[in-house]
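hi! just following up on the protien thing from before. the input was this:
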Amino acid sequence: MTVAMDDNPAFTRIPPWVKAKLSPKAIELIQKVHDWVETECIPAEPIVKAQLAKSRWKTPDLIRELRKKAKARGLFNLFLPKSFVESPGLTNLEYACCAEIMGRCYWAAQVNLSFGHLCYGGT
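and the predicted 3d structure came back as:
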C-alpha cells in the first residue's frame, strides 16, 4: 500500500520535518489510524456516550466491538517499542503522529491500545 502524503488529510497536521523522518510502515499505519478514527470512532461517539450514560463504570459494548476490529486490522499496541514481539515497529515520533490522530476522539486510544481495559475496568 503506497500512501501519498501531499494533500492527504491524515498528514495535514504533521510538520514537514516530521514527514521526512517517517518510515514507509509508519506512513501506512498513520493512514490506517486516520481512516479508523474518521470512519469508526468519530461516527460512534454518540453511541458510546449513550452507553456510558447508562453505565459509567462499565466498558461500553461498542468499545469492546471496536477493540476487536482494531486488533484484527493491526491497530493495537501501537505504542509498544521495537523490543516487543507484538510491536508494530514505530519510533516514538511515528507513534506520536498516530496518537495525535487518536486524540481527535477522546476514547479512540482506548480501542487501539491494550491498556484501555484499565481505564474502563473491562477487556
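Residues 24-54 form the longest helix (31 residues).
The radius of gyration is 15 Å.
cheers
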